């Protein structure tokens, strides 16, 4: 009996030690201090709702003779500026200045408990560009960043040279078919995230074929779940889920007045709140091979570039094809 207790105690100690070691080696702070970005990160001060916040951004000069033009990159909900490296390098090598913000609540920026809105985010990004002396820019938005880029172009058409949308979400009004859940309910869902659940989600939702290099995306997102501040990040994730759900842009595509190009991975089936639908219901929505064309038809003069055998993140899954298409469109 004593031997058995001793063995169980040893197993418990080993398990506890391994878990602590995992936390020590894999933990990532919710503001990604220990995630290396490809270029130096600066901070733009934002004051809102009585809080002094910091908006992280990279400002990368062209590596070849400047063409006098700027591209701004808006990240998706589960990402930050770190996943734009190849796009940045491709653009700067062709003479573009590139601005890469981490939106408030994401990446290295402040994780604030505030009312999140695409209108407010657009205003903050406009203020950043004004401070940097940029009067006009090409705005490229991926996923959630596509909703923000659309809002930016609607609010500031005179500052938007071109609107570039890479598999944007919000091509449907999720309120029509996704059951409503409260922010508190979504918060409890976000709290259950683990590196393993994040990997499964990325494998099934973002890419057509999983590759080892995608593990870095899991390492960053999964690492924050070990942080003692993860509940704060989970709550902000729930609040920004509500922002996406409650602030559609799909009804305003007709009002876009700037040249627009959509870049669409045709195998994408992203639905915000997909887990709340039955399998049969999921098949009815999020079909980007249809949504891309439908959206292009709504935007006056819009063009669409589609990619076969590609999912939600063309700039990572098919970087060469995406870069050729992007540079050609610019």
TrEMBL record:
Keyword set, alphabetical order: Hydrolase, Signal
Pfam families for this protein: Abhydrolase_1
GO cellular component assignments: membrane
Signal peptide: 1-22
Transmembrane segments: none
GO molecular function: hydrolase activity
Domain AB hydrolase-1 span(s) in chain numbering: 70-317
Protein name: Alpha/beta hydrolase
